[in-house]
Write a sequence for this structure.
């Protein structure tokens, strides 16, 4: 009777863990390759801890391995990192329609200018 109760207890503990891990592993398998390469991150925090205390140096060390365009997941936000002028020029030249209608937040425009003067 003790063996059955201990096995049932283990099953109750392992079932939620498997239910959480299985969707994460299946999601990673189905990458379509449309995103640039990047380091794998943890499920909740992403690559925040990969950047460390000096993020610009950490990104510099990632460039030889992943190239001039890196895809990072910072928490729940997917973030492309462009590390060369050539890649930035190509991005804004080929995808200019995506960025042309973006607006600035009101808080930023109010800080920068008020009637053409710096505040």
């Amino acid at each position: 009777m003790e063996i059955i109760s201990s096995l049932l207890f283990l099953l109750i503990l392992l079932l939620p863990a498997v239910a959480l891990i299985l969707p994460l592993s299946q999601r990673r398998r189905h990458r379509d390759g449309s995103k640039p390469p990047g380091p794998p991150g943890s499920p909740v925090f992403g690559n925040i801890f990969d950047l460390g205390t000096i993020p610009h140096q950490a990104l510099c060390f990632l460039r030889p391995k992943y190239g001039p365009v890196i895809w990072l997941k910072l928490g729940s936000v997917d973030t492309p990192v462009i590390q060369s002028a050539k890649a930035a020029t190509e991005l804004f030249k080929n995808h200019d329609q995506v960025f042309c209608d973006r607006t600035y937040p009101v808080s930023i425009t109010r800080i920068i200018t008020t009637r053409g003067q710096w505040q």
Residues 9 and 23 are 23 Å apart (CA to CA). The helical segments are 2-29, 48-51, 55-66, 85-94, 96-99, 106-112. The radius of gyration is 22 Å. Residues 2-29 form the longest helix (28 residues).
